[in-house]
Write a structure and sequence with these properties.
The complex is a heterodimer of chains A (616) and B (272). Chain A is an alpha/beta fold and 616 residues long. Chain A has 15 helices and 25 strands. The longest helix of chain A is centred in the last third of the chain and has 20 residues, at 490-509. Chain B is 36% helix and 10% strand. In chain B, the strands form two sheets. In chain B, strands 3-2-1-4-6-5 form a six-stranded mixed sheet. In chain B, β1, α2 and β2 (60-63) form a beta-alpha-beta unit. In chain B, α6 packs antiparallel against α7 (235-244). The radius of gyration of chain B is 18 Å and the shape is globular. Classes of the chains: A alpha/beta (616), B alpha/beta (272). At the A-B interface, α2, β2, α4, β7 and β8 of A face α1 and α2 of B.
Chain lengths: 616, 272
């Protein structure tokens, strides 16, 4: 099979020799048309300049007169029968958008580094962007070795520095290769001046990389472009972004949720009608049910992984506008055929090449042109997407402002619809004014038999009598309902606590008091529950009672069973109970009866303004 | 799972172009395509018919300089009928009546009879976007083009400030006074075009095949298009010749050689 060419982007700092390298590769391999070389020679003469290989690519008059690359150039190149598409890009920060445009489709990246000048800002920035774009095959080309006398120690020093930066960016280099693009050393043949270098020369290194042999996600993602009705048939046209589809397959669409089966795959001018279509195909098909679908729907197979429907996401974003990004301003979000208005809600982890090694800054409110950061994006409409690490095509997007692409990004986390909080029209103050008390979570922890449930029920009744809204969430009862799929493994216990905490949180948000009574033996789990509450009131109440006393009471007969080995991992017998050290309230239930215990709790609640002081 | 890319090179080129053509059709209700009857725009016309399952749902515009080689006109009229095309022929009547031709100046002639003819046509017929079959490997300034390339009212190409273009997320969102050149074949090479013509059996002009030791590698106006020495009288031989040639495709196009930055100068003003 005749495979498509491999795309190589050439990146790196200004004047580190990108265009020279490309010009040299083309001309040394005899792949540039003679008239082009002649033409450039003539131009150099008329401009009073020495011939430069870079001029073979920098076609604009402005580029040749200034000796810079303004825009990317894409040129095919063949080496030992393998076809490449070389994408030369500009190194100036001002032309970063052109560099990104060039790099976005590449499978291999060569990052140039001037041996004499060493690591400069754009080297770091380009390395960061290439990592973010998900380009897996990166070669660092240490150029201008002729200017440092082809020194091995010098090369090794730069090699270490480059690797340090790569480590920090969590990206890997496939090769680090010394060359002189100007002198043509180590590009297409081994160099005598660099005889100490044992690795492959640049062109050979490219042959060893099989960029196409990457992990392919075979779960279907189909993006609907249009629906055609040239005759009676309704043809759904779009691109298979990943996976494949065949006649008879069930396909489901999001966000609409409608589904049907592929009736036919449409074609024109073919001998045999196709029955299957693969990733990368701009397909057109009919369905067994004539669904009303609009452009932007994403199709998937119900038997495979499902994309996420969301109106908020955590993403990496590079900013290509000539203005600063504005928090809260309306931008247009575009992902494949989906579009929505959006706002950037917050900016954090701004990438700053100047202070690499000191960690990235957090919680910045601004993003300047040419900068990259992590952001939270809030979308006006639901978008169907995936994390970029799972699906490339449904995990990347652009932002537009005033009809121009100003940002490009990848989805780090596509949140489900419910994960992000919809702000309510009511504040907690509104609710406490109405109810006369605040919402809160009272979390009773302690051994089985310590009296948690008893205290909880008395407390609930007392609060009711005081006109305070409350409800008991008893561990045993929850396990019959919301947690009935859970067992007693450490994971399940943790999940049991998480769910209870989530339910408690909702109750407390509604302005009521949630009284959770469950053993919750581990500090870490109780800590998790506390953390979940955020701003809400969380009061940990340790119902303290010795194991001996609890075992003596054994109200449910569980200790007896545990001692007989009928229950494994029973708290206090087979597994440990970690006593709280920072509980808000400690109740010694071997000394206090339930009524007295409740008095203690009510007192605390009044003192801390959860209950009004005038409550009886 | 490790898999290699499941579709081959020509499929990939074709599918990508179809995607772009469909984007343009969906996003620009007033869309037209430039058809010069040359190999590239004829391949593009084929892709349009493929994208829309045999239909060509928008007009094909031929910018007629009146200096075209007669075979081209014959081919145009035959195929327009056979393929059921909505063919529109546009000319710069004023310049022609004033006697414009290449002896006045090759760049002047190209600007008047092609660029200005197109400009006049678009002033009278408000197509917001037109499909143009240029390719990156044709010459240096085209190598820097975008798939969706905006031009202002006077057709000016702001090549220093080209918009970013990332992945398949093409910007199709332009203000109503912006004219958009859509380039679905930008990523094809000359060789790709011929191999696709071979694979799909696409009808092409006889001018491309050798007669008496010469053939046209690129066709345009009679006075400014030179044929090249070649014995390639079949499709297979043309492909074999292109695999080894060291000469550029447009070497036979006189306007390209008229000035050092001829193509940039023409294209900034709106040349295709």
């Amino acid at each position: 099979m005749d495979l498509s060419y491999t795309r190589i982007v050439i990146a790196g700092h200004v004047d580190h020799g990108k265009s020279t390298l490309v010009g040299r590769l083309l001309s040394d391999s005899g792949q540039i048309f003679q008239e082009r070389i002649e033409k450039v020679k003539k131009i150099c003469e008329s401009n009073g300049k020495q011939f430069e290989f870079a001029f073979l690519l920098d076609a604009f008059e402005e580029e040749q007169k200034e000796g810079i690359t303004i825009d990317k150039t894409e040129i095919p190149w063949t080496y030992k029968g393998k076809e490449f598409l070389i994408i030369d890009t500009p190194g100036h920060k001002e032309f970063l958008k052109n560099m990104i445009s060039g790099a976005s489709t590449a499978e291999i990246a060569l990052i140039m580094l001037d041996a004499k000048e060493g690591i400069r800002e754009q080297f770091k920035r380009h390395a960061y962007i290439i990592g973010m774009l998900g380009i897996k095959n990166i070669i660092v080309v240490i150029n201008k070795m002729d200017l440092v006398n082809y020194s091995q120690t010098h090369f090794e020093k730069l090699e270490r520095e480059a690797l340090n930066i790569f480590n920090e960016l969590k990206i890997k280099a496939s090769y680090i290769i010394p060359v002189s693009a100007f002198a043509g050393e180590n590009l297409l043949k081994r160099s005598e001046s660099l005889s100490w270098f044992k690795g492959p020369h640049l062109a050979d290194s490219l042959l060893t990389i099989n960029a196409r042999e990457s992990v392919v996600n075979d779960n279907l993602r189909f993006s609907l472009q249009d629906v055609y009705k040239f005759d009676e048939n309704r043809i759904y046209a779009g691109k298979i972004e990943s996976g494949s589809l065949a006649v008879g397959d069930e396909i489901k669409f999001l966000p609409s949720g409608s589904s049907s089966r592929i009736k036919s795959i449409e074609s024109w001018n073919v001998k045999v009608a196709p029955t299957e279509a693969l990733a990368g195909t701009s397909v057109g098909f009919t369905l067994t049910d004539p669904l009303f679908l609009e452009r932007g729907e994403i199709g998937y197979k119900p038997t495979q992984s499902k994309p996420t429907v969301t109106h908020q996401m955590h993403a990496s974003l590079f900013w290509m506008s000539n203005k600063q990004l504005e928090i809260g301003k309306n931008y247009k979000f575009k992902m494949l055929t989906q579009e929505s208005e959006c706002k950037i809600e917050s900016i954090f982890k701004v990438f700053n090449p100047q202070n690499m090694g000191e960690g990235t800054s957090t919680d910045s409110l601004k993003l300047d042109p040419g900068e990259a950061a992590e952001v939270i994006i809030k979308l006006q409409k639901n978008i169907v997407c995936d994390a970029f690490s799972d699906f490339e095509n449904t995990g990347r997007f652009v932002l537009l402002d005033d009809h121009r692409i100003v940002g490009g990004g990848v989805v780090l986390k596509a949140n489900t619809i419910n994960v992000f909080k919809e702000s309510s029209h009511l504040s907690s103050q509104d609710r406490s004014m109405r109810f006369g008390h605040q919402g809160a979570v009272l979390w009773l922890t302690g051994l089985s038999g310590a009296g948690k449930s008893t205290i909880a029920k008395v407390l609930e009744k007392r609060l009711f009598e005081m006109n305070a809204h409350s409800i008991v969430l008893d561990g045993d009862n929850l396990r019959k309902g919301i947690c009935k799929d859970l067992g007693f493994s450490p994971e399940d216990r943790k999940e049991n606590i998480r769910r209870t905490a989530e339910v408690s949180k909702l109750i407390s948000e509604s302005g009521s008091v949630a009284i959770a009574a469950l053993i919750s033996p581990l500090k870490s789990d109780r800590q998790m529950a506390r953390k979940l509450m955020g701003e809400l009131r969380f009061i940990e109440i340790f119902v303290d009672c010795s194991l001996e006393e609890c075992e003596r009471r054994d109200t449910k007969g569980l200790y007896k069973k545990a001692r007989k080995g009928e229950i494994l991992g029973f708290t206090g017998v087979g597994s440990e109970y970690e006593s709280p050290t920072k509980a808000e309230i400690i109740i010694d239930s071997s000394l206090l009866d339930p009524e007295a215990s409740v008095d203690l709790i009510i007192q605390y609640m009044k003192k801390n303004n959860i209950l009004g002081q005038n409550k009886i | 799972m490790i898999e290699t890319n499941p579709i081959d090179r020509l499929d990939e080129l074709e599918q990508q172009s179809i995607y772009i053509i469909r984007e343009a059709y969906r996003k620009f209700p007033k869309l037209a395509m430039l058809w010069s009857m040359g190999k590239d725009s004829t391949v593009m016309l084929w892709l349009v018919r493929k994208a829309f399952f045999g239909h060509a749902p928008f007009p094909m515009v031929h910018i007629d300089t009146t200096f075209k080689i007669p075979e081209m006109i014959k081919f145009r009229d035959e195929k327009a009928l056979e393929w059921g095309l909505n063919l529109i022929i546009a000319k710069n009547e004023k310049a022609l009546s004033e006697g414009m031709n290449h002896t006045i100046g090759r760049l002047e002639c190209c600007s008047a009879l092609k660029t200005d003819a197109l400009k006049q046509f678009l002033e009278e017929n408000p197509f917001q976007a037109i499909l143009v079959a240029i390719r990156r490997d044709e010459e240096g300034t085209r190598a820097k083009e975008r798939y969706f390339s905006p031009r202002d009212k006077s057709f000016k190409w702001d090549f220093v400030e080209q918009p970013p273009e990332l992945w398949d997320q093409y910007n199709t969102d332009f203000p109503s006074d912006v004219h958009v050149r859509v380039h679905p074949l930008l990523h094809w090479s000359e060789l790709d075009i011929w191999r696709y013509i071979e694979r799909e059996n696409i009808p092409t002009l006889d001018l491309y095949y050798s007669r008496d030791g010469t053939r046209y590698r690129s066709v345009g106006c009679g006075p400014c298009t030179k044929n090249i020495e070649s014995d390639a009288d079949t499709l297979e031989k043309v492909i074999a010749e292109l695999r080894t040639t060291k000469t550029g495709e447009r070497a036979g196009r006189a306007q390209d050689q008229a000035d050092t930055y001829a193509m940039q100068k023409l294209r900034v003003k709106g040349y295709m």
